[in-house]
């Protein structure tokens, strides 16, 4: 693999908002004049096409894996099988996921590795939206492919995995249960943990500090960033089939995602970012 950043967005079971975050991280990178490909590798519940309103999208992931198996996959085919989504003066290349999740055996580990190798050699950033399950044991009777092999292969190949947790007790508990497995797959790496939809209505007035204390005490996990709950912006994004990043500038979620992207992916940090992080 090249040194180009492969950013995988993963979270435990439940509605953590990882797909929304993958889309908006990709948009923020494109807005920073980076070339970006966003790939829907969620082989359980792909949703990027729906989030982005890509009703007439190209064949996407399944066709890419088929061409890889035939030895006919290259940059031209990647572009042909993907859609272009405009982001301000730039755009992101979006490879949509499986149209039928039952086709998951077609997304075998070697195909994922070849796809990511080609993408990382031709784009500044590769952003992946991954499924939650990572346990082993389930196999396709016809192909012998592990049910979660695509996710595991992507987690191993990624330069960084953004671990997304929703700001509620159920999501935190699920993350803690999955932590030994994800830590084993990512041994020797320091991946950011991002807490999404921070609000006081679930954990009380000190929700942020409670989450920080719980994760540090039970798992020695440091929270990298909090994304405030911004239901109106999220609803508008779904209604318009557009990323939050392209919505109203005053959105606290938009600002927090932009700050996270600058700080933890692009490696930039400014005084304003520190103030936004403190308020988050």
Give an overview of the whole structure.
This protein has 280 residues and is α/β, with parallel strands linked by helices. Helix content is 44%, strand content 17%. The protein has twelve helices and eight strands. The two termini are 35 Å apart.
Separate helix tally = 12
The dominant shape is globular
What would you call the structural class?
alpha/beta
Our Rg estimate from Cα atoms comes to 18 Å
- Level of helix content? 40-55%
Tell me about the largest β-sheet: 8 strands, mixed
- Quaternary state reads single chain
Tell me the β content: 15-25%
The side-by-side strand order for the widest beta sheet comes to 3-4-2-5-1-6-7-8
Order of helices and strands: EHEHHHEEHEHEHEHHEHHH
What does the average pLDDT come to?
92
- Beta strand count: 8
N-to-C span: 35 Å
């Amino acid at each position: 693999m090249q040194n180009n950043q492969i950013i995988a967005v993963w979270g435990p079971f439940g509605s953590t908002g990882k797909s929304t975050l993958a889309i908006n991280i990709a948009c923020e990178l494109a807005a920073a004049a980076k070339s970006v490909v966003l790939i829907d590798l969620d082989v359980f519940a792909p949703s990027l096409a729906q989030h982005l309103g890509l009703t007439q999208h190209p064949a996407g992931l399944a066709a890419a894996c088929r061409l890889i198996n035939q030895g006919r996959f290259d940059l031209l085919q990647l572009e042909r099988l993907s859609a272009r989504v405009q982001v301000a003066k730039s755009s992101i290349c979006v490879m949509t996921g499986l149209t039928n999740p039952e086709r998951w055996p077609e997304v075998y580990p070697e195909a994922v590795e070849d796809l990511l190798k080609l993408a990382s050699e031709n784009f500044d950033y590769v952003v992946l939206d991954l499924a939650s399950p990572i346990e082993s044991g389930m196999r396709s009777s016809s192909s012998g492919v592990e049910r979660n092999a695509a996710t595991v292969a992507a987690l191993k190949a990624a330069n960084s995995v953004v671990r997304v947790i929703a700001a509620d007790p159920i999501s935190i508990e699920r993350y803690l249960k999955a932590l030994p497995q994800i830590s084993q797959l990512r041994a020797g790496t320091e991946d950011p943990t991002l807490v999404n939809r921070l609000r006081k209505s679930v954990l009380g007035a000190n929700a942020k500090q409670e989450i920080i204390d719980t994760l540090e005490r039970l798992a020695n996990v440091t929270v990298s960033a909090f994304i405030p709950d911004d239901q109106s912006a999220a609803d508008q994004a779904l209604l318009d089939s557009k990323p939050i990043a392209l919505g109203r500038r005053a959105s606290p979620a938009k600002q927090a995602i932009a700050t996270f992207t600058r700080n933890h992916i692009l490696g930039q940090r400014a005084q304003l970012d520190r103030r936004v992080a403190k308020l988050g």
